[in-house]
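can u do me a favor
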C-alpha cells in the first residue's frame, strides 16, 4: 500500500507526495477580485504540498459573489495569478486552480441588482457574504437553455486563462452547493427539461463543463470536486449513492486527472455528513486518482490509503496554520492551532504570519 510520502501521477501532473492542500477561500484579493502580493507569499510557503488546490476562483463576473475573492476573467487577474504560480513553481511546487461559479449563492449586489442564476427558482438558506455585511440570499433566475452555452464558454475561457496564468491544471468546483451542485442534487434542481429530473439529465451540466475545460487544457490537467454525502448551503440529494456513482462513471469516461470527494464525517468539525462518507462505495466507479477530504489527520489519511479508499488526501485547515504541514507530518512535529476569526479577513494576520516549525525552533 502506498505511503503518504509516495508520489502519485494525476494525469499530466506528478505529485511527489500524497498530502495535498484543499481549496480554501481566504478573501485576500482586491475589491476588483485581483490577486495581491501577500497571496504570493501564502502559496509559496505551502509549495511542499504534493499538490496545491487553490481557493475557489471565479470564472466570470456572474459567477463570483464572495468579497475579496479573485477571478480569472480579466488580464489583471491572469497577471496576478501568474506571480503566484511562478512563485510556487520556483519553490518546487505544483498548483491547480479551482474554477468556481457560485450560482444562486451570488448576492445580487455583485450583479448590479440582477438576480443570480441557478438550475431552478430557488433561494439559498441564510445570508450571503457581501461588501455590506451579511445579506439574505436572493431568489435565483433559472438558467434558460439558450444561456447554458454562456456558462460553458466561461468555464472554457477561464480554463484557458488558467494555463496562461501558469497553472498546472484546473479543478472544477462541483461541490458544496454552488452552481454545478445546484444542478446535480435534487433539492435545488426542479427542472423538467434536459438538465433536470433523471440522473443523466442532472449530470449534464457537470459533463458539459468538464468537457469544456478538458477541451481547453486537456483532460489530463482537469479535475472535479464533488460533495456526495451531505447538505451544503441548502443543496442535498434524496438518494446520493446512485447519483454520484453515475457521476464517477461518467467522469471516468472523460479520462480526467482526478476526482476529489469532500465528505465530512457525521460528526464533522467543518460541515456535517448526513451519512458516513460514501468514498468506499464510490471508489470502484472511478478509474483515476481519487482524493479524499474532510477531518483527516495524518494517521487517518494513511489508513485510508492502506484501505484503498483513496489515492491521496487533501487537508484544509491544517495548512492554514502550518505552512510546513508536510514536514510536520514527516517529522511528527505538533501542529500549530488556527484561528477561525482570520479565515476571511483581509491582510496578513492569520494568513502569512504562521511560521514554519523550523523557524519557530530557531527563533
Ligand atoms: C477557510 C475555508 C475556506 C474554504 N473554501 C473552500 C473553497 O474555496 N472551495 C472548496 O471547495 N472548499 C472550501 N473549503 C472546504 C475545504 O476545502 C475542506 O473541505 C474543509 O476545510 C475540510 O477539510 P479539513 O478538515 O482538512 O479542514 C474551505 C474551508 C475553509 C476552512
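np, heres the sequence
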Amino acid at each position: 500500500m502506498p505511503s503518504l510520502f509516495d508520489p502519485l501521477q494525476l494525469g499530466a501532473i506528478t505529485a511527489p507526495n500524497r498530502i495535498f492542500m484543499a481549496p480554501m477561500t481566504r478573501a485576500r484579493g482586491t475589491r476588483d477580485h485581483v490577486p495581491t502580493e501577500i497571496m504570493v507569499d501564502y502559496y509559496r510557503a505551502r509549495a511542499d504540498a504534493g499538490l496545491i488546490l487553490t481557493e475557489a476562483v471565479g470564472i466570470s463576473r456572474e459567477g463570483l459573489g464572495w468579497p475579496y475573492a479573485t477571478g480569472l476573467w480579466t488580464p489583471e487577474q491572469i497577471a496576478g495569478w501568474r506571480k503566484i504560480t511562478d512563485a510556487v513553481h520556483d519553490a518546487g511546487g505544483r498548483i491547480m486552480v479551482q474554477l468556481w461559479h457560485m450560482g444562486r449563492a451570488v448576492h445580487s449586489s455583485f450583479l448590479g441588482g440582477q438576480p443570480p442564476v441557478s438550475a431552478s427558482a430557488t433561494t439559498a438558506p441564510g445570508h450571503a457574504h457581501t461588501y455590506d455585511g451579511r445579506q439574505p440570499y436572493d431568489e435565483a433566475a433559472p438558467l434558460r437553455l439558450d444561456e447554458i452555452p454562456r456558462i460553458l464558454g466561461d468555464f472554457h475561457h477561464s480554463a484557458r486563462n488558467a494555463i496562461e496564468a501558469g497553472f498546472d491544471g484546473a479543478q472544477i468546483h462541483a461541490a458544496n452547493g454552488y452552481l454545478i451542485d445546484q444542478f446535480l442534487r435534487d433539492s435545488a434542481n426542479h427542472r423538467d427539461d434536459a438538465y433536470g429530473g433523471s440522473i443523466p439529465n442532472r449530470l449534464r451540466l457537470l459533463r458539459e463543463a468538464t468537457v469544456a475545460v478538458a477541451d481547453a487544457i486537456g483532460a489530463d490537467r482537469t479535475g472535479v470536486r464533488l460533495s456526495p454525502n451531505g447538505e451544503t448551503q441548502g443543496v442535498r440529494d434524496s438518494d446520493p449513492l446512485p447519483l454520484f456513482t453515475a457521476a464517477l462513471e461518467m467522469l471516468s469516461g472523460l479520462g480526467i486527472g482526478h476526482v476529489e470527494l469532500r465528505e465530512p464525517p457525521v460528526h464533522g468539525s467543518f460541515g456535517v455528513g448526513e451519512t458516513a462518507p460514501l468514498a468506499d462505495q464510490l471508489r470502484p466507479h472511478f478509474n483515476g486518482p481519487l482524493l479524499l477530504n474532510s477531518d483527516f489527520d495524518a494517521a487517518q489519511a494513511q489508513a485510508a490509503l492502506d484501505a484503498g479508499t483513496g489515492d491521496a488526501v487533501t487537508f484544509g485547515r491544517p495548512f492554514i496554520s502550518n505552512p510546513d504541514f508536510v514536514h510536520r507530518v514527516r517529522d511528527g512535529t505538533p501542529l500549530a492551532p488556527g484561528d477561525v476569526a482570520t479565515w476571511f479577513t483581509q491582510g496578513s494576520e492569520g494568513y502569512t504570519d504562521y511560521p514554519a516549525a523550523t523557524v519557530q525552533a530557531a527563533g
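The first strand starts at residue 8 and ends at 10. hope that helps!!
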